Amino acid sequence: MLETLSYTFIQNAIIAVVLVSIITGIIGSLVVVNKMVFLSGGIAHSAYGGIGIAIYFGLPMLLSTSLFCIFVTILIALASYKQREHLDILIGLTWAIGMSIGIILVDLTSGYQADLMSYLFGSLLAVTTNDIIYMSTLLVFIIGIVFPFYREILSVSYDSEYATLRGVKTRFFYTLILVLSSLTIVVSIKIVGLILVIALLTIPVYIASFFSKSLFFMMINATLLSILFSTIGLIVSYNYDISSGPSIILMGSIFALGAFIIKSIRKE
Predict the structure, then answer these.
(1) How many domains does the structure of the chain reveal?
(2) Cα–Cα distances in Å, from 225 out to 35, 128, 207?
(3) Please, which contacts does 52-60 make with residues 24 or more away whose CB atoms are closer than 8 Å?
(4) Which domain, by its residues, includes 125?
(5) CA-CA distance, 199 to 205, in Å (whole number)?
(6) Separation of alpha carbons 44 and 148, rounded Å
(7) Whole-angstrom Cα distance, residue 224 to residue 236?
(8) For 203-228, what is each residue's pLDDT tens digit?
(9) How much is the pTM?
(10) 52, 194 in Cβ contact below 8 A?
(11) Which CATH number fits the domain that encloses residue 147?
């Protein structure tokens, strides 16, 4: 196993695992606390529209998908302010439209042999240096926003009405959390794919919530758990020549099931 560490693609995969684990540990905690899981699911699947645009027009994949997801996110955020009762319908529409646009544009791209599996279930071992740079930049950006405004984000996450009375711009921070979530989803697609990205955001946070007394420690614990699951999943994926995304999520799911059983036994 130590010999494999000399390969560049393995080194890139390990670095990507650590970077994305930190990103999802921070943003995943905010997604769960703010009850944005379904919203994030809609954004994740609509991201395929950005992938299709990148392939059809020959644009940088991560940049194109990020911009597309930010556009979709802002639309959803604006709609949630004015027509919250129709939010589920809007999420379903963006989900379907984004996927449809992506698939049609890929089909229209002449000479391109689409590997849908890599986008649907991830391609961790195909992470490039440019991907690492993008992930690193996003991590610095997230840390530079979340921690300076931690108190405002905390108040918006747990009691938005009280935060509004205290003069906190709740709509701005709500939209900001959504935008950061969409960017997190984009980089996570490279690791586990469109289908499983929400699991990567929520499973570590779910387990971390059992023994975290604050949002800050939930972020730290979720990050450590995500690194653990992703590393084990990567090892299993490499040794048995299976998809990395499902391997990572399966490891996390086993731990989550174990944590749930232990918690249930203790309650009794």
Answers:
(1) 1
(2) 21, 24, 8
(3) 52/101, 52/102, 52/103, 52/104, 52/105, 52/106, 53/101, 53/102, 53/105, 55/105, 55/106, 55/109, 55/112, 55/114, 56/105, 56/106, 56/108, 56/109, 60/130
(4) 2-267
(5) 10
(6) 27
(7) 19
(8) 999 999 998 999 999 999 999 999 99
(9) 0.92
(10) no
(11) 1.10.3470.10
